[in-house]
Amino acid sequence: MKVIVWRTRAGDGAGRGCLRRWRARLPRNRWVRLWLGCLGLLLFLCLLAILFYDLRPRAAPAAGMAAEGPLTLVIDPGHGGMDGGAVAADGTLESGVNLSIAFRMYDLAGLLGLPAVLTRSAAELNYPAEADTVRAKKVWDQKTRAALIASVKNGVLVSVHQNRFPDPRPSGPQVLYGPAPGSKALGERAQANLAAALDPGSRRVAAPAGEDIYLMKTAACPAILAECGFLSNPGEAERLKTEGYQRCLALLLVGSVLQEAGNGGL
Question: What are the residues facing 116 on neighbouring strands?
């Protein structure tokens, strides 16, 4: 929480005393301050939504249904079905964490009047009969998601993932961006917002996604992939499973899209 210091006239000891007492009342627990910061961000997002988006009620589209609007947020919960993604030490699957964060992003987008679609809305995937190998299932899944993304007009893709590393010490978010116009600026904004709120002092910067990340490579719309944290880090893995931390991640990611849209970058 930023402390605002008002200038007082020389000798105004009462003003300085009030300020000291006000600062002393601020919560010192880092995570309490984080939730307060997220609440402030939510209020800011509501203001942006009022300024830039139509807040009329809309029917919530199911996964695979494109929504209408000047800009549509495409939320991709990474992995799913037979592909669980990274696994935490306690057995928590990345695919489940990704889906939980994606649902919170979808709900927040609806609250703010921002049209949104999900590339998947369940833990399981309905593979076709001809996808009878692990490779065939993965290829079908990626191509199905890519087709959905391509069908959305004025889309902005945010793919939600979690990281893993053999060393349990690394932590914090990392954002990758695709080659489509607008992706780099959105990626840099999302990285800055995530780091400022969740990993102060981080020296990570947004980076281009590798050629092996199919959805980033094929998306014609602005596209980023957010590695929200490390499941290999025990402390961060516990936070990533909590409702409050997931809500904060959703706020930061949706907020980054709205900020970039409000500045004309999308």
Answer: 73
Domains of the chain listed by start with CATH number: 45-262 (3.40.630.40)
Q: Residue 159 pairs with which residues in a beta bridge?
A: 76, 225
- The first and second tokens of residue 258, run together, are 């709205």
User: 């006000």: which residue's tokens?
Assistant: 22
Q: Tokens for 70, please give them.
A: 């000047």
pLDDT tens digits, one per residue of 44-80: 555 555 444 443 333 444 444 444 458 999 999 999 9
Nearest residue to 83 via CA among 53, 130, 124: 124
- The amino acid at residue 91 is G
Q: How far apart are CA 94 and CA 77, in angstroms?
A: 10
Q: Contact 265/185 with Cβ under 8 angstroms?
A: yes
Q: What is d(CA 19, CA 15) in angstroms, rounded to the nearest whole number?
A: 6
The pLDDT tens digits for 127-164 are 999 999 999 999 999 999 999 999 999 999 999 999 99
**What is the Cα 8 distance to its own chain's centre?**
41
Distance, in Å, from the CA atom of 194 to the CA atom of 248, rounded to the nearest integer, reads 9
Cα–Cα distance, 34 to 218 (Å, whole number):
35
Give the torsion through C-alpha atoms of 231, 232, 238, 243, to 10 deg: -10
